[in-house]
Structures are given as C-alpha cells and as structure tokens.
Design brief:
Layout lengths: L1 E3 L7 H10 L12 H5 L5 H11 L5 H5 L7 E6 L5 E7 L2 E6 L2 E5 L9 E2 H6 L6 H8 L3 E2 L5 H12 L5 H15 L8
Parallel strand pairs: 1-2, 6-7
Antiparallel strand pairs: 2-3, 3-4, 4-5
Helix pairs in contact: 1-3, 7-8
C-alpha cells in the first residue's frame, strides 16, 4: 500500500482527476458529463500527476482490469469507531468503512449507498471539505434535497475551481446522486 495523507491530496491536480472519474453517471441537461467538465483543467501536467498518483502504467487495464496489489491508499478516522479507507487504483476507486467495502466508482460501480445527510455531517470534522468531497460520490439525494445539496457542493468545490464554473459542475454531480427515478434538477 502506498499511503497518502489528506494533505497529499489537497491540490488542484488531485481534485481535477478525482472529480472527473468519480461520477460515471453524471451529466447535465445538455448531456455534458462531469469528466467533460474537468477537461478545461485536465492538462498534460495534471494527467501525469494523476497517473503517478494512481499507479497507472501502459497495460494495467488489460493485465489486471486497472487494479493494483499495492494501490495508493488514504486512511482517515471518522470517529471513535469508524475508519474510512479509500484505495485509488488506475481503473477504480474503492471505499471501505472499517475494512468492509461499501462502494466503488469503476467499471463495476457501487454508488448511492450513503444518505446525503451522513455525508454532509463530515463537514463538521477536521478536513471536512476534503472528506465531504471524497465521500460525496457515494451519496444519494432525494428530490427535496437537490437545491440545498447543489449549493453545498458548489460551496465546497469553489475552493478548487473557478466560481463561474462551480454551478454547472455541481448540477452535473447532482444528476449522478439523485435517486434513480429522479435524475433532473
């Protein structure tokens, strides 16, 4: 395991790559995906950083479906009895609570597994913004929550992205978090 701390990932390169790959089913009303939204910032430098961070190498997707034996891993305490572990593989991001896998953003994704209110509670912890954004891909929101969740996402991502783009990115993310029968904002 290549251990990283929250401080190691609190940079624009990480958030461009992470947000870009963490919402496989999120598109805005014009069918623009979160990945498409990140392309404005996805430079060769960002690509190189993200590949080093995830351990990507030519052929990893064919050899092991994008999984590594020793992935880049973040471990954080969420309270006295909960430990969050996130493994960043070249082809997937795996989420664990107390070593039990709870979610995945890769080809066999498991999303919408945590009620948004629980994710929002992370904002009260040390490194709350970062934890909120890290766990957000696993959230599920209900119809009545969309406007307030959109505002919360916009407020948190504005620490990394230009404010004029945050509204569109947030709306796009919301589409992937909404309950499956309600994908519009």
């Amino acid at each position: 395991m290549k251990a990283v701390s929250i401080k190691d990932i609190d940079n624009l390169e990480f958030w461009i790559g992470y947000i870009g790959v963490s919402y496989p089913n999120s598109c805005d009303e014009e069918d623009v995906s979160v990945w498409d939204q990140m392309q404005e910032w996805y430079t060769e430098e960002v690509d190189s950083w993200w590949e080093r961070f995830t351990g990507y190498y030519e052929g990893v997707l064919m050899e092991s479906d994008g999984y590594l034996d020793e992935p880049t891993t973040l471990v954080m305490l969420l309270g006295q009895e909960k430990t969050l572990k996130i493994e960043f593989h070249p082809g997937d991001t795996l989420y664990f609570i107390n070593d039990e896998e709870i979610g995945s953003t890769g080809p066999h994704w498991t999303l919408q597994v945590i009620p948004y209110q629980k994710v929002e509670q992370l904002l009260t912890l040390e490194y709350g913004r970062q934890l909120f954004l890290l766990v957000l891909p696993l959230a599920v929101i209900k119809d009545g929550e969309k406007a307030s969740v959109c505002e919360a996402i916009r407020a948190q991502i504005s620490a990394y992205f230009s404010k004029d783009r945050c509204e569109r990115i947030a709306k796009c993310i919301i589409s992937g978090l909404a309950e499956p029968d309600d994908q519009t904002i």
